[in-house]
Amino acid sequence: MKGNSRLRRLARFGSVAVLALLLAACAGQYPNTTFEPHSDLGRAIDFLWDRLLLLGTIVFVLVEAALLFVVFRYRRRPGNDVKPPQTHGNALLEVIWTLIPAFVLLFIAVPTVRTTFNTQAKVAAGALEIEVIGHQWWWEFRYPEFGITTANEIYLPTGRTVNFKLTSVDVIHSFWAPQLGGKRDVMANRTNYIWLTPDSTLQPSVWNGFCAEYCGASHARMRFRVFTVKPDQFASWVAGQQRPGIVGSAPVSPGAGAPPAGASPASVTGAATATMASNGAPGYTFPQNVPEFDYARPNGAIPDGLTFTKGLTGNAGRGQRVYSSAACIGCHAIAGNPMSVGVVGPNLTHFGSRSTIGAGSFPNTPAYLALWIKNSRAMKPGVLMPTLGKNEYDPHLKTRVTTGGLDDQQIADIVAYLMVLK
Ligand code: HEC
Ligand SMILES: [Cu+2]
Predict the structure, then answer these.
(1) Ligand 1 pocket, mutate which of 211, 331, 334, 383 (most atoms under 8 A from CB)
(2) Ligand 1 atom at minimum distance from 388 CA
(3) pLDDT tens across 273-317, in order?
(4) What's the CATH architecture for 32-71+93-242?
(5) Ligand 1 centroid to 347 CA: how many Å?
(6) Residue among 367, 366, 373, 354 nearest 151 (CA)
(7) Domain over 268-420 is classified CATH 1.10.760.10
(8) For ligand 1, which residues put their CB under 6 angstroms from it?
């Protein structure tokens, strides 16, 4: 009796679980799926997967059918205790069942190896070359054709083949944007290549990218975004990124920066409306806050105890002076700021145009940026960037920052400065 009711409970649980799985399968979009490729490389990989699945299914069904047939057909029946004839080995059978899998493997191996070598080759002239440099734990992207260096986001024109040249400055990383293609290892002592062409029919979109090779403490926060945009939008983005990051003389007025949702609401009003100097308006950047692209919005949590003085207003001009006399310049470069030529951290020339902070960890808003500068090591474990806020606890050094630390007003000024670098 008892066993029966347990069985019934199990059956009920099982059917609910199956139903939930079925429902989950219909629900929503899967922004990181590889089953919806949007590039030639993505489709090539999808084709390999389909073939593998098809051949595997055929083999599975045939083998299981043969097994079940034998089990039922030749099972022991009551009153029939005759021992069947015993045999040892059958050369013909063994040759056949070695040849068949070899044949099946051939159909899988040949296209797989061909696709791997094909996309590992340096692509033909005319392709857009992008150098990808892996760092613990962020991505440096360079466009040699345009003299642009940026970090953690890639703009690609639809319909143009792009050749990624992959290297690392430290450990092994792996470059992967599931709906476009990848993954391929990013190594220090060799250059790997991978190329793909985003479909020319794509509407402007954003894709999540990941480091797909465990690389240390903040591996999970080593992400990037790929923006596939129309060729004219790409040209405008390039033009904007080629300009130096110079702060204009226009007055800085407080702008809106959504305060982070979290236990410790910090707020700093940025200088979103300060203009660039006379060297032109910022170029195209992918629109943020479009609900359709929610999947690309970071949702990193603010660590407990990290807060920021409410209602401070930053001044970009003052921020530039603070920044230029602080440790920042030893690690970060800003074209147009001759003091700032460091190469250890991400290039900040157009940081204000980027959508995330810390390789996809947090949305790029003044409030998050203030917390990042104040204590990046609390925000993202293990980062090389030191904790810089005065009296903040540095989880690496296990001490509080005393001398040389920045107060909240100084940080608000730096925030204002970086935010106008569109
Ligand atoms: C010792 C080198 C070092 C110093 C000093 C330093 N940074 Fe950084 N910074 C880094 C590194 C490395 C990262 C990348 C961290 C990550 O995402 O893993 C970074 C990330 C950033 C980012 C986010 C960039 C992005 O695209 O995600 C900003 C903004 C930033 N730093 C601003 C500053 C400012 C402002 C200062 C000075 C007040 C400063 N940094 C001082 C090394 C440094
Ligand atoms: Cu990595």
Answers:
(1) 331
(2) 38
(3) 444 444 567 889 999 888 889 899 998 889 988 999 998 999 999
(4) Sandwich (2.60)
(5) 9
(6) 354
(7) yes
(8) 137-138, 151-152, 323, 326-328, 330-332, 344-346, 348, 351, 354, 357-359, 373, 380, 383-386, 388, 414, 418
